[in-house]
Amino acid sequence: MKRPVRLLGAGRLRPLPALALAITLVAGGFAALSGQDWYRAAHDDRAAYAAQRDAALSAGEQAVQNLNTLDHRELKRGLDLWESSTTGELHEQLASGREAFTAQVKEAKTVSTARVLSGAVTELDDRAGRARVLVALRVTVEAADGARSDKDSRMLGELTRTDGRWKLSALGQAPVGGTSTG
Description:
Blueprint: H1 15-42, H2 45-67, E1 70-71, H3 75-84, H4 88-96, H5 98-108, E2 111-125, E3 130-142, E4 148-162, E5 165-173
Antiparallel strand pairs: 1-2, 2-3, 3-4, 4-5
């Protein structure tokens, strides 16, 4: 009678190839999950919306600062900056009143400098290309006699996207708390 031949280690996995297989499976699973996350993030509309919100806020803050900064010694440059920061009816108002405003500022010989304290987008319609911002700023006005005064204010601005850029289309003072709406 013959005895069956028994192989050494038969039925047992060898530790090194099993460990390599396990590491390969874990790495493959991690790569698949990471790829899925990357794809979702790259094709997520929320990321594009957030980018437009940030662009609108940055442009709105800069435009409000521009429209509250003016030096009588560099009037043409300052007013050109005002016009390049605006669009629509606000732009037309600034352009049509430029001569009269130039005469007033030259006579007063003032220098106003604005600094943005904070800002927020209150509305954004990315598809229509419209946004609203609330900007808090400090405006320092230096008179011809050297007297300086600081004024903090909150401005509400409306932005319109034209040629891929956000520009200010309306600007006004924000109401201060304590007013009733009823």
